[in-house]
């Protein structure tokens, strides 16, 4: 088969078409009619950051980003997500020709995939890892719905350019961002950057806490210790996430990389975000327009509000940038 199957259907989201559409419509109904004083979708918002957890947890947050996404001129959609299934240095591209969803298939733009692969020295994703990876798949049903809202027929839907991002350095991210710059500038391209934010808890090896609200005094709590006598843990998680979101909104790739290194925030898509920010920073130098190229955060949520050190949570963020 040359089609990547929807492996998470029936577990991470509904497998039945009607049930899945009902869930997505419910999430979209929670988004207001305007965001940042603009009707939706936001004109020119061709790049978003959105989460990739099970829809029960992150679907409502993701709906905000997808409601902002402008696909009106899109011929292809790049999807960049982190690798959860194998150790990967740099980036890798799919070898499949189609990506399945319960609604229908997306066609992979094989020509662009090969061009980007060659220009950035990317690898091929092993097919077993491609099918096991959720960071790209979780976006496809939401993207399909957004395409239905935009185009008259599935024949008119944009193709997809799936890219898995592994470990990258600051320099690597700038180099890959430079490769993507020409695609960022082309209004026929849209971009989905897949990431959850803080993964807090012993199982994520991250239990940062500050009693005084100072990120410079972060310490790590021991599991099964007593509940902190100071502010609840979830407030520290929000502080760490807000610092990361501020760095994303700054438009500075270096500021984002430095923030992650300083706080250790377990943003799983930090490298896809870093690549996007590196590309947008180059784009900003050309357009010289502060209303373009800067991410704006529109929604923040967590899977739970952590109070006890042996608890855990994952944070979700939706953002967009006008290009």
Automatic annotation (TrEMBL):
Q: Name one Pfam family in it.
A: Memo
Q: Which CDD domains match?
A: MEMO_like
What the entry lists under InterPro entries is as follows:
MEMO1_fam
Annotated family: Belongs to the MEMO1 family.
Q: What NCBIfam families does the database record attribute to this sequence?
A: AmmeMemoSam_B
* Name this polypeptide is given: AmmeMemoRadiSam system protein B
User: What is the species listed in this Swiss-Prot or TrEMBL entry?
Assistant: Trichoderma asperellum (strain ATCC 204424 / CBS 433.97 / NBRC 101777)
